Amino acid sequence: MKNTTNGAEDKFCAFSISKQNKLPDILMAGYAGLDGSIVITEKKWDELRGRLSENFLQKTLWLKEELIQDSQVFGDRPVLPLGKGGIFQGLWDLASALDVGIEIHQDQILVKQQTIEVANFFSIDPYQLRSEGCFLLISEDGYRDVHDLQKQGIPAALIGVATSDNDRVIISYGERRYLEKRYKDSLDQV
Fold this sequence. Notes:
By secondary structure, the chain is α+β, with helices and mostly antiparallel strands. Helices cover 32% and strands 18% of the residues. It is built from 7 helices and 7 strands, in the order H-E-H-H-H-E-H-E-H-E-H-E-E-E. The two termini are 28 Å apart.
């Protein structure tokens, strides 16, 4: 399975949702923006070294080991690999593929401190940063599936739910805002 959000509809064609039934939970596995922050660290090492320690930057590069390389680890769960545009683009694609709305709690999105620091340095959005090696999943029992994934050593979190309307909402510190249709990748701004 390619790590791209293109063709998201194909990833979920076998998963039909009846809006009369319980709508699925939305999970993530891996870390938002981690791949992009590693790429930036490799390319902009000297610039970053002016503000961040070499030890911190080296640890950022070592995080490459935490990128999920193979979607086979998820078994038969419906998954959407993330890529350009980051998790926000992936969430838009997921809602489009399932023809549902979504309600996502931004504070539940897994993101490494290294990604936050690199994004802050370049004034870019870590949630729009390339996220290969990270996946969105849908589940009828998100808590159980998160627990199962974590038992396998896969970082996972329940980040939201599908909704019966078409609103695509991100909740951040009690504030509700809507996802945009297309996100430019923050990596392109560096």
